[in-house]
Amino acid sequence: MKSIRTALNCLVSLTTLLTVSPVHGEVEPPMSGTAPQLRLNNCTEIAAMFPQTAPGQSSLDEALASKHGLFTQQHGSDIEYFAYIGDKQIAVSNYSPLTGEMDLKKRDEDLQRKTEEKLAALERKFAITVSRNQTIKHAANHGAKLEKERAIDVRQPNFGETLALEYALERSLPTTGSKTELQFLFPLQCSLNGALAEWELSTKNKPTVVVEPGTGDRQLEYVLMHELSHHSQYKMGLDPLAPFNWKMTHSLGWQTFTNPLTGETDWAIATTTGLLYKYSSSMRKWISCNKSGQPVDCIGSRVAHQREADHMTSKEIASIAKVRPCTAYMSNPLEVMAEGLAMYRMSKVHRSALLKKSPELYEIIKDFDQKLIAKHYGAGMMRSVDGLVVSLNDSAESHVRDFESHIIASTPTP
Ligand SMILES: [Zn+2]
Which residues surround ligand 1, an ion (CB under 5 A)? Predict the structure, then answer.
């Protein structure tokens, strides 16, 4: 049987971000799975990076801002430290021009303090825990067998990452109950085999989001919202250790199969004409298959090897799928759903892109999301178009209806 871990892994791959890039506005080059972290412990180290710094020392500000996940720009005579979160530029602090190393040390301490205060506030507001600089014991429960608990070095997220976390949490409500049930870990070393982040259950059944080093340099808030979408699945009672039993994967246009000859169990995506395709990670193609997952050719006859089967690219499959996925991260229905939820909640632009790309997935996601909101808050709340949970009233409903009508009217029929 195919490893359950593969199904559960939340591999928000670079391919995904590249595919979503029209929404994000730019295409970024691939990064290494072992992207080095910027680890600067003191001002001397920062200064050593820029030995030729000109008077005014603006490069020192840039280096310090980078350490805290921020950017700088001139603001009058001051230097403004700011972050890009979602589609917004968020001002963090204004500082006077540097006069010496002591100034740099003070603003470093100021940013550290602000980060700590923000994290503590998030932990209280959302009933979560976030890692600090320490060594912890952790192991994931992937169902097939429990990992052995191991010591891992984790860190406190920097200011930019903390702001991204705040953005994601605010738009992924409800995330937690009254007690702390969700933890975020930022390990110092990569451990997810190329993934940017993962939602997982610990061996103590604690829902956990693991964020790999380097992910903060990407659009972290989107990655976190994808992971929080997996938490939404969990909160709605979808068992992460038995994903093949999720009935809603059928409404997402997928079928589970077990090949009696090989024991392989997996999903296949259905097309509008009722054909089935399963993903081959070795071929990086979608393989035409029968209801038992056995490869077939273009007229539906069984073939011995999948390389002889009819096959398609992800783009081709997405265009003929019964329920079209919204990004190329579509290897299984769990991820299609997580991508849909993340886009639905992330921003007006993302929600608009989801509706344009796949109206059928949009409706499924909207229904699922509203049921989760109703389960947690009762019937009086709903998701606004910018992702926040608001009171359900005529005005709020009308705003969503107008938004959807406008998108549908302006989208050409495929
Ligand atoms: Zn995922």
Answer: 10, 335, 338
